[in-house]
Amino acid sequence: MTKVSNISGKVVVITGGARGIGLSTAKALQRLGAKIAIGDIDETAVKESGTAADFEHYGPLDVTDQRSFDAFLDEVERQVGPIDVLINNAGIMPTGRVIDEPDALTRRILDINLYGVILGSKLALARMLPRHRGHLINIASLAGETHVPGLATYNASKHAVLGFTDTLREEYRGSGVAISSVLPTLTNTDLGSGVHAPKMLRAAEPEEVAAAIVQMIATRRSKVRVTKVAGVISQIVGLLPQA
Ligand code: NAD
């Protein structure tokens, strides 16, 4: 296990952190002394879970709204401090064949899963690059490297997130800002509940994906694939750590 002593005191922003993988990651990082800011379109979810008071900042955020996102990050920096890590985690995964998908839903999937990540990346880099430090983490999916039937638009969004993130990493190599992607397997969250895992594959728990994200922040790894086969969780690291 890699040491995680460098997490304490870091200001970490997590989009879509009101539940699922985002909330589990927030709790895991907080236990290690990180200062957590959560933004989510669902304003009530964290409050209802009784954990809102535990975090440094919790506020409404729509990742598809440039003004809302920019203002949210400004507020975090005012209240908590300069952002060390942004985790672009918010996402949706409606299932079904694309020909049956209403056009408005097709656009919404791409708006949240892809545009929201691109927007968050731009806003984070604008703050981090002048400081020559920081870590941008985009949550993709193993669906971004495979072709899961019934998820064509979702798959497209995650393939695009991986391409976008890999390109940014090349563009800003040596800048002091690490740029990473996480590819979770099917995970037991509200989002993952509509999909059935193939026989050997077992859905991961959100805490298991959170543990991989914690390791990624500690090591500044470029990419990690989280898989669970026959009940065994494993993290396959794609690329080397970044300076
Ligand atoms: P989840 O549904 O439990 O949580 C997603 C959160 O995003 C929700 O709290 C939701 O309110 C929020 N959100 C949705 N639209 C938003 C918006 N416009 N602005 C801000 N917040 C918004 O889902 P999860 O399973 O925890 O998924 C988190 C990420 O992990 C997603 O990007 C998802 O694609 C990815 N992922 C999930 C799985 C899985 O099987 N659960 C597998 C691979 C990747």
Which characteristics define this entry?
243 residues, alpha/beta, 8-stranded mixed β-sheet, 6 helices, 8 strands, NAD(P)-bd_dom_sf, SDR_fam
Q: How would you describe this protein?
A:
The chain is an alpha/beta fold and 243 residues long. 37% of the residues lie in helices and 19% in strands. It is built from six helices and eight strands; from the N terminus they run E-H-E-H-E-H-E-H-E-H-E-H-E-E. An eight-stranded mixed beta sheet has the order 3-2-1-4-5-6-7-8, with helices on both faces. Helix 5 (152-171) links the parallel strand 5 and strand 6. The two termini are 20 Å apart. Bound molecules: nicotinamide-adenine-dinucleotide (NAD). The site of nicotinamide-adenine-dinucleotide has 31 residues, from helix 1 and helix 4.
Q: What's the helix-strand series?
A: EHEHEHEHEHEHEE
Major sheet: order of its strands? 3-2-1-4-5-6-7-8
Principal-axes geometry comes out as globular
The Cα radius of gyration reads: 17 Å
Q: Helical segment tally?
A: 6
Distance between the termini: 20 Å
Overall residue-averaged pLDDT value: 92
Query: Tell me about the biggest sheet?
Result: 8 strands, mixed
Helix percentage range: 25-40%
